[in-house]
Write a structure and sequence with these properties.
By secondary structure, the protein is an alpha+beta fold. It folds into two domains: about 100 residues, Zincin-like (2-Layer Sandwich), CATH 3.30.2010; about 45 residues, no CATH class. The protein is about 35% helix and about 15% strand.
Amino acid sequence: MKQNVGSSTQHIHDWIGFALDRNEVNYLSNMIRVRWNKQFVRRFADAGYIAVPPRGIIRISPLIWERALETERRETIIHEACHIVAFHLYGTEIKPHGVEWRQAMVNCGVEPIRCHDIPLIGINRFHVQDCPKAEADRCYVSRNKLAGLKRGQLLHCSICGMRVDQESIEF
């Protein structure tokens, strides 16, 4: 079940609260802010932390959020909240996905994985319409290459070598 960005605020704060509770740092709940970042076209979300005074921020891609399933959203928010937990408890010099973060994730009952697998076609990558490859291996153009194409640069697919023009991009 998918839902839009606007109706997700309460779920996000509930999931952050869950991660803080499971890691016994509930007092951080009023110190964490959530922001939507439309510039995130590859990463689903990230977290930042400042020790003095303690505060954290979780930034989320609304483009990827809208494609994600409820479980992917929940696990991503818990993942980012656990970064803040680990940085708060152990300092900002720890490895972002180190043992401290992994333990915080385990405390939440969530597998400590680093990356999402939500398809980025139409967000960060755009299919080429007349690609001769099979559907699963279709050629694509990255958002950066598409910007160059719009500025008049010539573009060829790096997979099959076919010339790509703006009309052949699927949006």
